[in-house]
């Protein structure tokens, strides 16, 4: 989320600034890459209940995704709307 916001990527509102309370950084992770990510924590799953766009099995909150060297090419898709 922070990388997207800092680089002007449109479509990630990040209204709460990454404190896991708004779900406006909702993304769909490329399904082939889901296995490379840690499972979402309970709080993330609870917050995902409030996404404006459809929640899917590959839905994640981008504020909870830490991109490291092995995830440099993480592919995410943005929902039609966040707010």
Walk me through the structure.
The chain is largely without helices or strands and 83 residues long. The chain has a single domain (2-77), classed as Beta-grasp domain (Ubiquitin-like (UB roll)), CATH 3.10.20. Helices cover 14% and strands 11% of the residues. The chain has 2 helices and 3 strands; from the N terminus they run H-E-H-E-E.
List the helices and strands and how they pair.
Elements: H1 2-6, E1 26-29, H2 42-48, E2 59-61, E3 76-77
Summarize the model shown:
14% of the residues lie in helices and 11% in strands. With 83 residues, the protein is mostly loops. It has one domain: Ubiquitin-like (UB roll).
Properties at a glance:
83 residues; little secondary structure; Ubiquitin-like (UB roll); three-stranded antiparallel beta sheet; 2 helices
Low-pLDDT ranges: none
Task: Give the strand tally.
Answer: 3
Fraction of residues in H or I helices: 10-25%
Cα distance spanning the termini: 15 Å
Average pLDDT, all residues: 92
Structural class: little secondary structure
Rg result:
12 Å
- Number of helix segments? 2
Determine the CATH topology: Ubiquitin-like (UB roll)
